[in-house]
Amino acid sequence: MNIPPPPPAPAGGTGYPPHLPGGSGGGGGGAPAAAPPPQAPPQQQYAPPPPQQQYAPPPPQQQYAPPQQQYQQPPQQQYQQPPQQQYQQPPQYAPSPGVQASAPPQPAAAAGAPVRTIRKYDAVIVDVVRRTHDASSVYFFIGDAPAYKAGQFLSIDPHQFPELKRWIEYLEMLKGKKEPIRSYSLQSAPGEKCMAICTKAEDYDPKVHKYPPVLSPLMASGSLKGREVVIGGFTGAYFIPDDISNVTDQVLHFVAGSGVVPNYGMLKDELRNNKNPRVKHVMIDVNKTVGDIILHEQLRALAKAYPDRFEFINFITREDPSYLGPGYYKGRPSTEFVRRYVRDPGSVRAYACGAAITKYHREAAKQTGTEPQPRFMESVEQIVHELGMPKPHFKKEEFG
Ligand SMILES: Cc1cc2nc3c(=O)[nH]c(=O)nc-3n(C[C@H](O)[C@H](O)[C@H](O)COP(=O)(O)OP(=O)(O)OC[C@H]3O[C@@H](n4cnc5c(N)ncnc54)[C@H](O)[C@@H]3O)c2cc1C
Asked: Which residues contact 124 (CB under 8 A, 6 or more apart)?
């Protein structure tokens, strides 16, 4: 078998991505100086597409006119299920229990809370843009753009995709229950032309996972570009209140993997739409490798554009990212590290999004008589607790 040789390291470059500048634009708090790695790391192969692809989904006139053959299916095939089956979200998705537990909703007027009604929308997927080796942004055109808050999510019923039909029937038979609707946080912010999500194709390791994933590989594959879909939305209590500057001047964002998606939407809304200008944001993003950082370039660009308001910090657990400059650390954030960034633990607000222990982890641990291993969310909760932050100042969105 011919294995092609690794690509040559760019001359004097930082390794990944080749077009990234040396720093994130924010002070890193004592990170080692940038030093080029001896050779290009493998994630170079997955360098996201050039910025113009990422920032510029096709103009509306392209978006409305996908090729004819992509619209072949008659509506009654796609939308068979009665609305109450398709769009009533199961309790675990509306919103995640942790959000309610840690942040009891305020009266609607005071919190500026949006209406939580879930409606169905006919949408067209106008573009799918690869972000990492396993994650893609999916852009939707929806005729009457509905009101939503940055950080909220939409829902997608996997039953509407004919290519998943047999697969879902088989898995429903094995699991003995109907496949639920999946939720996806909005990567877009209000005011953008298209609504967008970013999906990461879940892994399947038969030694670890009981079943292969259903929807995320299809969503992330790019093959749905040009397709009509039905989406449900828009809901969730994971958003920054309009009046946050009345209570704090700092927001911490703890994110991991695809958990960066809603927080990226919130940051865009706060920074680009010039909301709460005296509030500063620090994002701590945890990933396995540099190549796994979703929306990496976009976040670096935000940090560069708003150096006085946004600091982007990365922790990489499986490799040393210090060659990328200040703000890149190996390992996981500790309470002491986070404390350096917190001005006032009594008033700072924190938003955390990422993997948490699920009922499947609990069941598996019970069978072996062990405790489930803490995941990203449990470690953030520990940090927030050790910092002495009041619990209602912490909001979380669990992706499972
Ligand atoms: C509010 C919210 C927002 C989200 N936002 C995003 C986002 O922005 N981007 C994103 O990529 N994802 C997001 N998610 C996750 C997303 O909803 C899906 O869960 C994810 O895409 C996986 O779906 P899937 O159909 O591919 O996998 P699934 O089929 O749901 O499988 C996922 C895992 O669960 C296990 N599993 C499933 N059923 C069982 C069972 N019966 N017994 C044991 N194990 C089981 C599987 O083995 C697999 O490991 C969000 C979730 C929530 C709740």
From this structure: 63, 64, 66, 140, 141, 226, 227, 228, 229
pLDDT tens digits along 72-128: 443 433 434 434 434 343 333 333 333 332 333 334 434 445 545 689 999 999 999
Task: Enter the pTM of the model.
Answer: 0.77
What residue's CA is closest to ligand 1, atom 22?
Answer: 216
CATH classification code of 240-398:
3.40.50.80
List the domain boundaries for the chain. 80-235, 240-398
The model's pLDDT over 13-26, given as tens digits with 9 standing for 90+, comes to: 333 333 343 333 33
* CATH architecture type of domain 80-235: Beta Barrel (2.40)
CB 216 near ligand 1, within 6 Å: yes
> What is the number of the ligand 1 atom nearest to the C-alpha of 95?
1
